[in-house]
Amino acid sequence: MEAVVPRIFKSSVIVPVPKKTSISTLNDYRPVALTPVAMKCLEKLVLVHLNNIVPDTIDPLQFAYRPNRSVDDAVSVALHHVLQHLDYSGTYVRTLFLDYSSAFNTIRPVRLIEKLAELGIPTPTCNWILDFLIERPQV
């Protein structure tokens, strides 16, 4: 069995959705990709498969793109660690917060597949994900 995603399933229609009510520049829009329903179903199946394989390897402090996790959880955990140092004189805290702009759009598929393979994701699944991510026609 080949890990090939039919081209028709990989096509998407890009629709600009306003980020806020007052639009003044193109940056005030968020591009949203509308994909075929059949593809969304396949994506969910692959996600279930990945969740059955990967959960123990994901850092517990990873909050983005995880169910039942939010930016509020990340802030709460960070604040908890910072406030713990108030009990101890002579200690200090350094924090670093990173937010990668357009991170999802800048992922290199081949590098992602290398990382998934390092996590122990089976080769057929990696190949399917790679085929899913490349050569995606957009309208």
Automatic annotation (TrEMBL):
Residues 17-133 form the Reverse transcriptase domain. It comes from the Eukaryota. PANTHER family: ENDO_EXONUCLEASE_PHOSPHATASE DOMAIN-CONTAINING PROTEIN, REVERSE TRANSCRIPTASE DOMAIN-CONTAINING PROTEIN. Pfam families: RVT_1. InterPro entries: DNA/RNA_pol_sf, RT_dom. It comes from Mugilogobius chulae. This is Reverse transcriptase domain-containing protein.
